[in-house]
């Protein structure tokens, strides 16, 4: 049976600031992110299986990505927890804002690494994460490929 890649696209709004950066992005700002998640596997060949012919049900993939990424990051502000932005984060949080403190600089590059780790933990054994594309503007994006990250 052939390996097939399937992709599901998601979108979410997230704010962030890049502490120590030498440009405008050191200021708190936001993006309308678009995330493309591509997995690879063989279609289910068991004719008795309700998912016959599918690599993975798009709905099952959606549950994983929404639960781990979209529902967490949508309309949140993300800061590196090891920067002075924690003071701002506490102030925002105390005022009822959704704030995420992460172990990394919240660039698209680092976010896509984080997302790959989170998604991989929840995929069925026979399905592999092939790639992620995180687009922060119409012309700027970061990509993660499993083939680039094998040991």
UniProtKB/TrEMBL annotation:
Q: Which residues form the active site?
A: 25, 75, 136
Looking up InterPro entries in the UniProt record yields: 6-PTP_synth/QueD, 6-PTP_synth/QueD_sf
EC no. given is: 4.1.2.50
The molecular function GO annotations come to: 6-carboxytetrahydropterin synthase activity; metal ion binding
Cofactor(s), names only, from the UniProt record: Zn(2+)
Binding residues for Zn(2+), per the UniProt record? 16, 29, 31
State the source organism's domain of life.
Bacteria
Q: Which Gene3D superfamilies match?
A: 6-pyruvoyl tetrahydropterin synthase/QueD (3.30.479.10)
Q: Which reaction does it catalyse?
A: 7,8-dihydroneopterin 3'-triphosphate + H2O = 6-carboxy-5,6,7,8-tetrahydropterin + triphosphate + acetaldehyde + 2 H(+)
Pathway(s) of this molecule = Purine metabolism; 7-cyano-7-deazaguanine biosynthesis
What does the record note about the cofactor?
A: Binds 1 zinc ion per subunit.
Q: Which UniProt keywords apply?
A: Lyase, Metal-binding, Zinc
Q: Which family does it belong to?
A: Belongs to the PTPS family. QueD subfamily.
- What protein name does the entry list? 6-carboxy-5,6,7,8-tetrahydropterin synthase
Organism the protein comes from: Leeuwenhoekiella aestuarii
């Amino acid at each position: 049976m052939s390996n097939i890649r399937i992709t599901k696209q998601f979108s979410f709004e997230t704010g962030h600031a890049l502490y120590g950066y030498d440009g405008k992005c050191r200021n708190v700002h936001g993006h309308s992110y678009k995330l493309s998640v591509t997995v690879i596997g063989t279609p289910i060949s068991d004719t008795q299986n309700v998912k016959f012919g599918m690599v993975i049900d798009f709905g099952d993939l959606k549950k994983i990505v929404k639960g781990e990424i979209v529902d967490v990051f949508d309309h949140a502000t993300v800061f590196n927890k090891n920067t002075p932005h924690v003071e701002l984060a506490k102030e925002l949080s105390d005022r009822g804002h959704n704030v995420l403190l992460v172990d990394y600089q919240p660039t698209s590059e680092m976010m896509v690494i984080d997302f790959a780790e989170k998604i991989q933990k929840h995929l069925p054994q026979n399905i592999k994460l092939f790639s992620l594309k995180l687009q922060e503007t119409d012309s700027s994006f970061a990509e993660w490929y499993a083939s680039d990250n094998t040991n």
